[in-house]
Write a structure and sequence with these properties.
The chain is an alpha/beta fold. The protein is built from twelve helices and 15 strands. The strands form four sheets. An eight-stranded mixed β-sheet has the order 2-9-8-7-6-3-4-5, sandwiched between helices. Strand 6, helix 7 and strand 7 form a beta-alpha-beta unit.
Length: 407
Amino acid sequence: MEKGWLPVEPAQRTRDIRYAVRDVLLVAEEAKKAGKDMVYLNIGDPLAFDFSTPLHMIESIERAMRAGHNGYSPSSGIPEAMEAIRGEADRKGIRAVNDVFVTYGASEAIEIALSSLVNRGENILVPNPGYPLYTAVLSKLEAIENPYLLDEENGWQPSLSDIEARIDDKTRAIVLINPNNPTGVLYGRDILEGILELARKHRLIVFSDEIYDKLVFDDLEHVSIGALADDVPILTFNGLSKSYLAPGFRIGWGIISGRAGELQNYVNAMLQLTRARLCASHPLQYAIKPALEGPQDHLPAVRSKLMERRDITFERLNAIEGVSCVRPTGAFYAFPRLEINEPDEEWVKGLIRATGVVPVHGDGFGQKPGTAHMRIVFLPQPELLETAYSRISDYVQAHRNNPAATI
């Protein structure tokens, strides 16, 4: 008699991996099946709303395919794309560039950089709140997430004192997300200078995720931390998904800057990993040069739309008793604080089931103990946002004194 299979046990490294942005969709599907009119505020995909990829980028890919660029490319990227990325680094003021490499989205560049650096049991300083990709990759690498606080009372700027207090002999690097996801806040130059001083003092590498660098509001200027220092090893990550409205292209890159002699072994390790996975999508790399060097006229319109929606978000959320929100200055996220008496994950699930509005619970991004938040994506059209915030307001008011209430 044939023996049956025992349950296949997954690797322990997957045990703690969570991705709240998509996990809430399981609850959203329940609400949709129950007949709720859904408003999705959970995923930062501009193309799900009234934004579109610049046509000249799409045409560049079609030309590349027709020209036969459908096989493997060089592992680090096609020459014209790498040259365009170096030109972008120069425009941003990053001078001490050692190398660049093209990846499947900025997320693969981040994973390659972390995988090439950190050993089991070592730790990486990550912003809290911050994007959950870093937590997932570190868990897979059996390394340790070392969260440092962003100070809500100081407009979600990183707390330099908290960063320094968390550094130990196992700390290898510090991660910045600027503008930040999930708070939508741009970091000040003084904060960036302070982080560089800590990196020098403690010999840390800086990972700077700048995927929203061109989506900055109120005439503020994005400063790349790589432009402020030639002596600190810095990895700057970017891509086509957000500012260039092409998340489905899955094209990103890393820029490695700092003193060449100190970085050479690390650079070689990263390039070794790029070779091991062969290459990013060959024809889609031909969109990089047209994006970075071609017309930028989509950006003013995108920023104008986002600022209008930011203003609606900021005003409507702060008008709700029990909700407070720091004004976003970049990207397309807000991270309002909730005065509630239950975990924010449970509160958000209740909101979704009752109203069909789908934000993401703050705990999915990390937050100061004892606080509760939710992340709002304000990409939808103004009328959808108004509908969503009216439903959130009704839900908050119904639950302030009666958590079991329905609306």
